[in-house]
Amino acid sequence: MNDLKARGEWDNTVLIVTADHGQSFNDFHKNYWGHNSNFAAPQTHVPMIVHGPGVAPGVEDGMTSHLDVAPMLMRHALGCTNPLSDYAQGGDLLDEQLNHPWVIASSYLDYGIIESDRITVVNGTGQWKILDRQLTPLDNPGFSPAVFEALQQFRQFYEK
């Protein structure tokens, strides 16, 4: 950063600092440790700092995803004007209204559809479980519409 500032390039540089995952330390007393065992907040809620032209200072608390980084860069750093859905599944991180009702996260073995009140986990064989945000299984919760929306989104860039 100091070098960019010294060369006068800081104001025209996009800098993103984030992490790919968090770390669990048995946060919910269910013996989850590490960084590839579940989709609860300790492993999925990571900081992100964005600096660049047109980025207003502030804190955003909406539900976002790393899938939102590429659309932001394509629009604001590279000047793409076509619809984001042409090339991405995320939204524009600089859109102040961005607050997904659900996001998708994945690990080596499975993926999770994370909503404000639940996490639907699907493994590689299609078996699923639905948990609350503290990893307690829900009794007969039924599928959320978000699951079907996520499955449709998975198909977006596959040939038909």
Describe the structure.
The protein is globular, with a radius of gyration of 18 Å. It has 4 helices and 8 strands. The chain is 18% helix and 20% strand. It has 160 residues and is α+β, with helices and mostly antiparallel strands. Strands 5-6-7-8 form a 4-stranded antiparallel sheet, covered by helices on one side. A two-stranded antiparallel ribbon has the order 1-4.
Set out the fold topology.
Blueprint: H1 2-6, E1 15-18, E2 24-25, E3 33-34, H2 41-44, E4 48-51, H3 69-77, E5 102-106, E6 110-115, E7 119-123, E8 128-131, H4 145-154
Antiparallel strand pairs: 1-4, 2-3, 5-6, 6-7, 7-8
Give the tags.
single chain, 160 residues, alpha+beta, four-stranded antiparallel β-sheet, two-stranded antiparallel sheet, 4 helices
Dominant shape: globular
Largest sheet: 4 strands, antiparallel
Computed Rg: 18 Å
Order of the strands making up the biggest sheet: 5-6-7-8
Strand content: 15-25%
- Classification by helices and strands: alpha+beta
State mean pLDDT (0 to 100 scale).
Answer: 92
N/C terminus separation: 46 Å
How many strand elements?
8
Helix share, percent: 10-25%
- Counting DSSP H or I runs of 4 or more residues, the number of helices is 4
The succession of helices and strands, N to C, reads HEEEHEHEEEEH
Low-pLDDT runs: none
Quick gist of this model?
The protein is an alpha+beta fold. Helix content is 18%, strand content 20%. The strands form three sheets. A four-stranded antiparallel β-sheet has the order 5-6-7-8, covered by helices on one side.
